[in-house]
């Protein structure tokens, strides 16, 4: 297993539409999902889409267990979601690809999720609560959409400018540390 680099805005790869996994859930795909999960735990986060580590495949990992609970890793290969209600609820979202930016996004409170699990078994279940928020956030990633794309143009630009400035400052301090 390996911790991979997480892409951040304005990396254009984050806007790619990810492609379906072909040939089923192989050992190679499981190794990718193991890396994704290790990268997510290290970030730390509760969800991660493969495109966020630069792999344009329709694969998501997630772990919604609380800090006091045993880890509950979840793997979604070629996931499909169908909204089950017109009821929307706001949630203060963040994103590992848009670090230190948080804002409210409204999403359907329930959705149906169909996917292949870590062993290639077909699963069909109802998502609600945090599971519904997270799976819809991750499904957006597979379509090249970030949570800031649901915000106003001004808020979106401010978010990207904030991340770009933080990366410039980090690069500058890394350079001065290496020069010391
Ligand atoms: O896609 C990602 O960057 C992973 C997100 C998943 C997420 C975003 C919004 C709402 C729920 C899940 C990261 O885990 S962002 C960090 C985080 C952690 C706990 C709760 C919300 C966000
Ligand atoms: Zn995200």
UniProtKB/TrEMBL annotation:
It catalyses: N-terminal N-formyl-L-methionyl-[peptide] + H2O = N-terminal L-methionyl-[peptide] + formate. Keywords: Hydrolase, Iron, Metal-binding, Protein biosynthesis. The keyword Amino-acid biosynthesis does not apply. Binds 1 Fe(2+) ion. The active site is at 138. Fe cation binds at residues 95, 137, 141. One of its GO terms (molecular function) is peptide deformylase activity. Its EC number is 3.5.1.88. Its cofactor is Fe(2+). The keyword DNA repair does not apply. Belongs to the polypeptide deformylase family. HAMAP family: Pep_deformylase. Removes the formyl group from the N-terminal Met of newly synthesized proteins. Requires at least a dipeptide for an efficient rate of reaction. N-terminal L-methionine is a prerequisite for activity but the enzyme has broad specificity at other positions. This is Peptide deformylase. It comes from Henriciella marina. The gene is def.
